[in-house]
What we know:
- 2 copies of one chain form a homodimer.
- Chain A is α/β, with parallel strands linked by helices and 336 residues long.
- In chain A, 26% of the residues lie in helices and 27% in strands.
- In chain A, helix 3 crosses helix 4 and helix 3 crosses helix 9 (284-296).
- The two termini of chain A are 15 Å apart.
- The A-B interface holds A 60-61, 224, 229, 243-246, 249, 255-276, 279 and B 60-61, 224, 229, 243-246, 249, 255-276, 279.
Amino acid sequence: xxxxxxxxxxxxxxxxxxxxxxxxxxxxxxxxxxxxxxxxxxxxxxxxxxxxxxxxxxxxxxxxxxxxxxxxxxxxxxxxxxxxxxxxxxxxxxxxxxxxxxxxxxxxxxxxxxxxxxxxxxxxxxxxxxxxxxxxxxxxxxxxxxxxxxxxxxxxxxxxxxxxxxxxxxxxxxxxxxxxxxxxxxxxxxxxxxxxxxxxxxxxxxxxxxxxxxxxxxxxxxxxxxxxxxxxxxxxxxxxxxxxxxxxxxxxxxxxxxxxxxxxxxxxxxxxxxxxxxxxxxxxxxxxxxxxxxxxxxxxxxxxxxxxxxxxxxxxxxxxxxxxxxxxxxxxxxxx
Amino acid sequence: xxxxxxxxxxxxxxxxxxxxxxxxxxxxxxxxxxxxxxxxxxxxxxxxxxxxxxxxxxxxxxxxxxxxxxxxxxxxxxxxxxxxxxxxxxxxxxxxxxxxxxxxxxxxxxxxxxxxxxxxxxxxxxxxxxxxxxxxxxxxxxxxxxxxxxxxxxxxxxxxxxxxxxxxxxxxxxxxxxxxxxxxxxxxxxxxxxxxxxxxxxxxxxxxxxxxxxxxxxxxxxxxxxxxxxxxxxxxxxxxxxxxxxxxxxxxxxxxxxxxxxxxxxxxxxxxxxxxxxxxxxxxxxxxxxxxxxxxxxxxxxxxxxxxxxxxxxxxxxxxxxxxxxxxxxxxxxxx
Lengths: 336, 336
């Protein structure tokens, strides 16, 4: 095999937003799969806010990426060599394959997907980690009831867009918070949210007061910071706050900003619960089946934002933190 | 009736700790009870951290005390006139009677208590609002399981001391956080906690690491601020954080300090739930019956800290916020 495996490795732990020097762009021979392993040609890399956390040292739900290691990333691609009985050359798979063009993985560590049912980017988005995050976070923790008001931040992102749509499917009202008129239009017109608040153009507290006259029953937070505080201030009795992420804080270089309105939990007998989607690993099949059904019937819409070229990885990742993507951000690398 | 009714009324909304000028000390004629009302001679006033919140303007779980109104307070006393069929002269009652020597109240708005079973201060403490706060907050929200580790701040206070004892009764380990060697001794030796951390003498994070090697399963928070942050950083998987109060923040004049470590909820799939005891009003009888049984059998110990004289009310209230009380702080006013 003549191809080379281009990769991004973590060269230094970023302070604030990742800088070019934090990466090492290098080429290595395409690896040989070992026993029970497959060799995958990566077609799409998934760009996820969680990647920023994986670059930090310290205890978390998974170990950090080591300095000098290939950057961790979810990805989708095609099996081009297989030493695993359950996977054949030509099969499509997703998994934690890393920011590179080729990856070996144990056959049990990847998930086989059917590209005739949905595109590979959808398997990284609505039918992948972000979709499962929305599904279990909203339904298991948020538990929206018919007629309740669900508010979600990052509403035009891969997770938020699905949260609002599932809320609607369950008979709740969905109010999104997003940055910019086009994202707000997308959320309401394309995804069917009842309303959207453009945090770049209006005061979030005023928008919430206008669109949630009876308070917020479920607040699904992807961003943290001031928007979380604004939502806490307008909780309804027995509200459920789902802490899914805090993208506003991931690149902070000072102290983490805590939600100063947290005593709203006290006066409203409300609850704030955090989770990572891997907590629901044993229920993915259940979530994926229901989500696939909704997608197939048109009840759920999926949107992807596709960037191109492995070499653009550092810049593409920054687009997430600049809030420039609408829908699931993926990086197409096949053919590189 | 020749007696006068001395009262403390709210003269101004405090900024920070209540100052002498925030109160009006005045005398009025002892009121006459109206239809279905009783006249109560107040024996003990209950000093509760929540009183500080009642002095602030703004939406909360109950309306603020109005300027010029008698300061709201729980109290215990004796019926000296009755226009209510269920209450006779000589009966003892508790209720929101206000910071004064005499109060009228609807007969249905006070609770008759039996002073032969427990003293009036106990009815304001372990068998009253603080005890019910500990009981429902710990058992309904914290839900400690046998062998789990329960940490409580304000452990030598009226709520915290009961929380740790109930945790022990349920087979959990109890670790208290309190200020000062004598409070820590009380919590361990008198109340039977497994350990106490003196936040004035040692680093709380180090103390928690030493006494909670497997992390904190239930954290019952009465104080907020840095201690809440230290506890959040050491949660066990699926921990439950009970937000009962934030006495460190009630007199803050700057912005409320939010828990900057709240993303520990995310990585640990943990939950933070707030409540006020009035949320459990329809279950008080259940809680009071079980607590009275534990008290009678000696399984639960109650401690009261009794100050004297209505005129000392402003200073006595400040003792709460200075953390000077051990056990339930009450102010004896009868005979004044």
